[in-house]
């Protein structure tokens, strides 16, 4: 079983989820919540609220890995900055606990969950509800997005592990080949 904490970072609303993935595409929702901070609060206080909540979640749920939405460039620079700062707080909390962090783009998450990298929020929410066999749709959208991130990582984790193993083998072969060339000189 792989326990994944999914995080949809944001300053005003930061979606948090915890799921377990079994064999194949079997996933089970364990918890979901949204951390809210007032927009008129000082930035450092908002980040502290997110940090405290994320650390509580990590200490309580003990995830094996954290999946965070990768910030991409939007028109609104202040929104991107806040999202990146919230994501950084999450990554730091995980690093302090020696928990791996993986970043996934919104289109990777949408493609994994819906089959369409350009799916809208309603489609993502609908598929998350179906995949996890939830009685009702998770709200707000940040909660559904956090669940989608965790699902995406559960389903991509075996491929990520195989890629890392292949890269390590290639690096070792390159090292042996270079040593062989050096010895031949």
From TrEMBL:
Binding site for Mg(2+) 1: 8, 142
InterPro entries in alphabetical order: RNaseH-like_sf, RNaseH_sf, X-over_junc_endoDNase_Mg_BS, X-over_junc_endoDNase_RuvC
Purpose of the protein: The RuvA-RuvB-RuvC complex processes Holliday junction (HJ) DNA during genetic recombination and DNA repair. Endonuclease that resolves HJ intermediates. Cleaves cruciform DNA by making single-stranded nicks across the HJ at symmetrical positions within the homologous arms, yielding a 5'-phosphate and a 3'-hydroxyl group; requires a central core of homology in the junction. The consensus cleavage sequence is 5'-(A/T)TT(C/G)-3'. Cleavage occurs on the 3'-side of the TT dinucleotide at the point of strand exchange.
Signal peptide interval: none
Gene name, Swiss-Prot/TrEMBL: ruvC
Single GO cellular component term: Holliday junction resolvase complex
Annotated EC: 3.1.21.10
Pfam families: RuvC
Keyword annotations of the record: Cytoplasm, DNA damage, DNA recombination, DNA repair, DNA-binding, Endonuclease, Hydrolase, Magnesium, Metal-binding, Nuclease
Descriptive protein name: Crossover junction endodeoxyribonuclease RuvC
Catalysis: reaction(s): Endonucleolytic cleavage at a junction such as a reciprocal single-stranded crossover between two homologous DNA duplexes (Holliday junction)
Entry-linked CDD domains: RuvC (cd16962)
Keyword Cytoplasm: yes
HAMAP family linked: RuvC
Binding site for Mg(2+) 2: 69
The protein's required cofactors: Mg(2+)
Family: Belongs to the RuvC family.
Cofactor stoichiometry and binding remark: Binds 2 Mg(2+) ion per subunit.
Location within or outside the cell: Cytoplasm
GO MF, any single term: magnesium ion binding
Source organism of this protein record: Mycolicibacterium murale
UniProt xrefs under PROSITE patterns: RUVC
Subunit structure: Homodimer which binds Holliday junction (HJ) DNA. The HJ becomes 2-fold symmetrical on binding to RuvC with unstacked arms; it has a different conformation from HJ DNA in complex with RuvA. In the full resolvosome a probable DNA-RuvA(4)-RuvB(12)-RuvC(2) complex forms which resolves the HJ.
Residues the record marks as active site: 8, 69, 142
């Amino acid at each position: 079983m792989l326990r994944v904490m999914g995080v949809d970072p944001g300053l005003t609303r930061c979606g948090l989820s915890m799921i377990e993935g079994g064999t194949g595409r079997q996933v089970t929702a364990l918890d979901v919540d949204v951390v809210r901070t007032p927009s008129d609060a000082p930035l450092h206080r908002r980040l502290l609220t997110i940090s405290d909540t994320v650390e509580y979640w990590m200490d309580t749920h003990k995830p094996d890995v954290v999946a965070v939405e990768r910030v991409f460039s939007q028109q609104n620079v202040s929104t991107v900055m806040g999202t990146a700062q919230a994501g950084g707080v999450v990554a730091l909390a995980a690093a302090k606990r020696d928990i791996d962090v993986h970043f996934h783009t919104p289109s990777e998450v949408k493609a994994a969950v819906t089959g369409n990298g350009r799916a809208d929020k309603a489609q993502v929410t609908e598929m998350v509800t179906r995949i996890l066999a939830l009685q009702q749709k998770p709200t707000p959208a940040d909660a559904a997005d956090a669940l989608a991130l965790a699902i995406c990582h559960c389903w991509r984790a075996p491929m990520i592990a195989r890629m890392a193993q292949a890269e390590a083998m290639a690096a070792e072969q390159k090292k042996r080949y270079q040593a062989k060339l050096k010895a031949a000189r």
